Fold this protein.
Amino acid sequence: MRIAVTGKSGQVVTAMLERGTAAGHEILALGRPELDLTDTASILRAIEAAAPDVVVSAAAYTAVDRAESEGGLAHQVNGAGAAAVAKAAKGLGVPLVHVSTDYVFDGTLDRPYIETDETAPGSTYGSSKLAGEEGVLADYPENCAIVRVAWVYSPFGSNFVKTMLRLARERDEVAVVSDQLGNPTSALDIADGLLTVAANLVKDASPVLRGIFHMTAGGEASWAQFAEATYHASSERGGPFAAVRHITTADYPTPAARPANSRLDSKKIALVHGVSLPVWHRGLEVVIERLLTSKTTNEEKRK
């Protein structure tokens, strides 16, 4: 497949480039200056020029806390920008896979969220991503799949796992929130899942394959448990580790509210698309191995 992916440096985009190329697909990463999500004309031009078989809308404004003071920009990128990507895909008559987030929910349910649960974002970032979903569905409902993911980490960019490893090199104990639950999910596994969904949409026009889906790794954890698993996997491989002190959300205030419950039920995408991501511990071990190997290699090069 020839796959146009919006963005050039995000975790999911980078993982798509790696996994898609390894699987024999042609991955075209479209980002600034050719494609700017604040410039509708550039979006249409870039995607039309790419002439893809399918479009994966992965680029987004992801600075959750900063979005509280940059709401206009967040909505322009995540809302209007996502809708423009859908229009571009529709203009070419090719399927669209749009990546969204658990932040479209308020996190108050006592069970994992399913696709039909009521959305009620509690942050500007969440409301901007919901606006993107709504724009995509308004413009191109007949040929799109919206895939919500959560708690993304990878060997690339900035993320929770890399932050925990950095902090462990600086201190013996790290305080981590323990009253928020979610599904830690490797961007590498997300990329594999998105490639399967994209291929299904290209091969089959069935409406069943379209709509909203949740896609996260198996299992769940609190942020504190996620940190402890990170340090366990790191220490087993001779990497940095620290003690984890469990704290509450109230102990660590942030500009943007985080959902207390970010767990997503992924049964639908398994049934419809045949996508079941590995349990999160397995994905974490792969990422830790790569991060530690990369650091060792880089240190040896500097000697």
Observations:
- Residues 7 and 59 are 5 Å apart (CA to CA).
